[in-house]
């Protein structure tokens, strides 16, 4: 069982920045593909950004060029740097981990709320 603990959410003004962190309780963090998802009321959870165990990255079109995902395997942590924030980025952001060797092992954090005021 892997526990994921997100932090860094909060209230920010339009155009501002936030950095989300997700700390994982596993000694094999480097073997996990990590992702950040977000969800707003009444909508499905959507992928925002992902980073593989090999550190390849992917982004939703809506955040391309504004958000950057990164990982520090020594600290068992994945980050999401969010710049040029817009009100439509307001959501609960969730950290996700998938074991690259066994994709049935999927874990979620509890979520951290990001609110962007206009």
Mean pLDDT: 97
Q: How many DSSP H or I helices?
A: 0
Quote the distance from N terminus to C terminus.
40 Å
The main sheet comes to:
7 strands, mixed
How do the helices and strands follow one another from N- to C-terminus?
EEEEEEEEEEE
Poorly predicted parts? none
Helix content: under 10%
In terms of structural class, how would the helical and strand content be classed? mainly beta
Radius of gyration: 14 Å
Shape: globular
Amount of beta strand:
over 45%
Query: What is the number of beta strands?
Result: 11
Q: What oligomeric arrangement do these chains adopt?
A: single chain
Q: Layout of SSEs?
A:
Layout: E1 4-7, E2 10-13, E3 18-24, E4 32-39, E5 46-51, E6 57-59, E7 67-72, E8 77-82, E9 91-99, E10 106-108, E11 112-117
Parallel strand pairs: 2-11
Antiparallel strand pairs: 1-3, 3-8, 4-5, 4-9, 5-6, 7-8, 9-10, 9-11
């Amino acid at each position: 069982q892997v526990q994921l603990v997100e932090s860094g959410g909060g209230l920010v003004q339009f155009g501002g920045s936030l950095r989300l962190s997700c700390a994982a309780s596993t000694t094999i963090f480097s073997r996990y593909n990590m992702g950040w998802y977000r969800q707003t009321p009444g909508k499905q959870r959507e992928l925002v950004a992902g980073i593989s165990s090999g550190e390849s990255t992917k982004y939703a079109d809506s955040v391309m060029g504004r958000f950057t995902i990164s990982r520090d395997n020594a600290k068992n942590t994945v980050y999401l740097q969010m710049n040029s924030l817009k009100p439509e980025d307001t959501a609960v952001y969730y950290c996700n981990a998938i074991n690259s060797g066994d994709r049935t092992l999927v874990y979620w954090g509890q979520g951290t709320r990001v609110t962007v005021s206009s």
